[in-house]
Every structure is written in C-alpha cells, then in structure tokens.
C-alpha cells in the first residue's frame, strides 16, 4: 500500500511495496492539491525505487497522490492515497514594546496565525531570575504587562503554542520609565 511518512508543512515521503524492478518498468507519480486537481504534477520514478520525497508543497493542504506502475510484464492497478501537510509553524517574527510607563508597558507581536491556540508572555527584570507568566488567547496579539518596578529593564519572551503542541519563542527587552 502506498503511504506517506515524515510529513511536514512542505513535504512528505511516499513509501510503497516493491512491485517493479529496474528492468520491468517504471512508476508514474501524479499528485495535486485535492482542491485544485488542475494543478496536477507528474513525475517518473525508476522501477528500482520504493520511496520518494515530495517537497515544495503548500502547508495545511490535502494532496491526492496516485502511483501508477508502468510494467511491461504485468498489469498493476494504480495505488492512491491522500496526504495532508501540517500547518506551518513559524515563530512570532516581531515583538513590539510600546506605551512604556513607570509600572507597565504594552507588548504586541506578529504575525497572527490560525494554527496557534495561545501565547505565553514571560517577563522578568534583568538581571534576575524572577519570571512571571501571562497567558494570552490565540486570537489576540497584544497584552499589557502591569505592576512593574520603575526604571527597570525587563526581558519579555512571547511563546506561541501550536495545536500540534510545539512551541516557538521570540524575546525583546523593555524598559520602564523612572517613577514620579
């Protein structure tokens, strides 16, 4: 049976049983997004192969894949499978600090991604190791950090938590203003 392994957001490896040999024929591989079969791509593969890596694919997309054994000895029916690539998991690419006051500042980040279920904003004074955590819903891209010490530099880390359980982080420094 044709099946896929090592699935990522942009690639997967197809595996199939050995049906042909170098001498008895070759395979024609056809694949296309299920939603756009007109964009079908075709590849010829030597009969000696039993696997192939497909790359440069779109994330979060279901592909229809057909492996057609072209044998000059036997007829083999085409093998088909459907493979869905994973969501693209990119970390926040920018963390912006604004509206700094003596006891608070505003943290925002981009981009907003549908595959994120939530964010954790970790912050603590530098130098030091007391870190506090704010949980932020995946539909938001900013929060206000409050109850801070004046005239202090903080390290702020925004961690995106993906549906898959993976996490990606980005940090920035923030300074509170001098107190009154």
From TrEMBL:
Database matches in Pfam families: fn3
Cell location: Secreted, Extracellular space
GO CC, alphabetical: extracellular region
Keywords: Glycoprotein, Repeat, Secreted, Signal
Primary localisation category: secreted
Bilayer-crossing regions: none
InterPro entries the record matches: ECM_Regulatory_Proteins, FN3_dom, FN3_sf, Ig-like_fold
Positions of the Fibronectin type-III domain: 1-89, 91-179
PANTHER family, alphabetized: FIBRONECTIN TYPE-III DOMAIN-CONTAINING PROTEIN (PTHR46708:SF2), TENASCIN (PTHR46708)
Protein name: VWA1 protein
Organism encoding this protein: Grallaria varia
